[in-house]
Write a structure and sequence with these properties.
A seven-stranded mixed sheet has the order 1-2-3-4-5-7-6. Helices cover 33% and strands 32% of the residues. The longest helix has 15 residues. 27% of the residues are buried. By secondary structure, it is of the alpha+beta class.
């Protein structure tokens, strides 16, 4: 495997941020208009106190993870838009992204990081649990199943 670098948001990777996992999001997630606007305007996440990190290999984006500042919460954030391209799955890149974004949250004084509407495969759940996220109450889903809710206390 080639060397992977984790970098902070750069506009040249904006389209990758917007498109990674878009089909999955459209198919499985009911998103409110505010959430859609945020995902289509990554600069807004940063301007509101969040962060976006990319995994880069040979100057090509292969993964992304964002940290969104929750409104009306001084020290709470949400981990969102976590994903790695299909050809780079299972190589520890998601772990690198998550650890880097957790460090940003700690530096910002975060007390908790939420992971909402987490309808993902079992290996990803194992990753989040290994990072210290714990499952909390489940909510009914518009798709007829429960959404997994997780939280990381820092």
């Amino acid at each position: 495997m080639k060397a992977v670098k984790i970098i902070s948001y750069q506009e040249q990777y904006k389209d990758f941020y917007k498109s990674l996992n878009q089909e999955w999001i459209d198919k499985y997630f009911h998103m409110e208009e505010e959430d859609v606007l945020k995902l289509n305007n990554p600069e807004q996440i940063i301007s509101e106190g969040g962060a976006i990190h990319f995994a880069i290999e040979d100057r090509i984006a292969i993964g992304v993870c964002s940290l969104v500042k929750l409104k009306n919460h001084t020290y709470d954030y949400e981990l969102s838009k976590m994903g790695v391209t299909a050809s780079h799955q299972g190589k520890g890149i998601g772990r690198q992204l998550a650890l880097s974004i957790i460090e940003v949250a700690k530096a910002k004084g975060a007390k908790t990081i939420f992971l909402e509407s987490n309808r993902i495969l079992t290996p990803a759940l194992a990753l989040y649990k290994s990072l210290g996220f714990n499952e909390v109450e489940q909510k009914p889903s518009v798709y007829g199943r429960s959404d997994i809710q997780m939280v990381l206390s820092l």
